[in-house]
Design a protein that fits this description.
Distance between the termini: 54 Å
Structural class: alpha+beta
Number of strands: 9
Strand content: 5-15%
Radius of gyration: 21 Å
Number of helices: 6
Helix content: 25-40%
Number of domains: 2
Length: about 190
Amino acid sequence: MTLPTDSKDRKNIPIVRGLLDYFPAACSEVARLSMEANDKHNPGEEMHHGRGKSADHADCIGRHLIDRGNYDDDGFLHEVKVAWRALALLQEALEAQGAPLARGARVEKTYSLEEATAFFAGYDFAYKPCPSRIAGDSDTALRIKNKYYHHDPEEVIHECDCCGDDIVANDGAIYHGESVYCCLSCATPVE
């Protein structure tokens, strides 16, 4: 599932001769798609595969196969997206079987509102949930600011799930659980 440590066994996995030399143009296009997708889904961040952004690989493969032979709106052949999705599907299947998480993958843990509330117990960050969001059975949301200490204060950290405005690190985000965030103007502090 991953490279063995024994030098003799490692020589039986010809990554260059068995992959890159077989499919150089295809690998190049998949790498180009990875860069374009990163710029779209993780703007300003180091290139990485943000797991959880879109994990329906098998369905996506099917949809792109239907349109094979044509270019998608972003200028990539649908076959490039089939290859990318097939590699993602295989990588995640191998990880489920015990392979280590890919170096270029980032898994963002999501917390329930109850978990986040427990984590931030004692902080004065309580907000009422936005009218347009239901945060489980709780009537409290959390303002999370210290999570973003390593960001530039004016860096956009999220898009508000309520109004669509950018949320900058200096303001923090109102966390409603299940990876739902909103800006300060969409939530009311708890008195």
